[in-house]
Design a protein that fits this description.
This protein has helices at 39-49, 72-82, and strands at residues 5-6, 13-14, 23-33, 53-58, 64-71, 90-99, 107-109. Helices cover 20% and strands 38% of the residues. The relative contact order is 0.27. The longest helix has 11 residues, at 39-49. The protein has one domain: Alpha-Beta Plaits (2-Layer Sandwich), CATH 3.30.70. The chain starts with a strand and ends with a strand. It has 2 helices and 7 strands, in the order E-E-E-H-E-E-H-E-E. The chain is an alpha+beta fold. Strand 1 and strand 2 (13-14) form a beta hairpin.
């Protein structure tokens, strides 16, 4: 076999990156006590360490919104972290939606 992998949905063989290394972009919104607890700084630090691009910001209604772009496995790992956040946070809900890739550069706190 030449590195071809089964496609998750069609059963067809695909070559190239492993499934968890395919690039993806996700927008996430985190509800709970997530402002004033270091959520954005912790999130940005983890995103940069994972080599992801995107941004994170506070929303006026008390939630945090972020966009992560990079290898799917690394994006998924940061999404899992968002379910708990930093120690002082109390996350009640995380919603995420997939978006088209933008080839964004860097990771910023907005």
């Amino acid at each position: 076999m030449s590195g071809a992998l089964p496609d998750d949905q069609s059963g067809a063989r695909v070559s190239g990156a492993l499934p968890d290394q395919r690039p993806e972009r996700r927008r996430v919104v985190i509800d709970g006590r997530v402002q004033g607890v270091g959520f954005r700084a912790s999130c940005a630090h983890r995103a940069v360490a994972a080599g992801l691009t995107g941004w994170v910001r506070n929303l006026p209604d008390g939630r945090v919104e972020a966009v992560f772009e990079g290898p799917a496995g690394d994006v998924d790992s940061l999404l899992r972290w968002c379910r708990t956040g930093p120690p002082s946070a109390h996350v009640t809900r995380v919603t995420s939606t997939e978006e088209p890739l933008t080839s964004e550069r860097g990771f910023t706190i907005r």
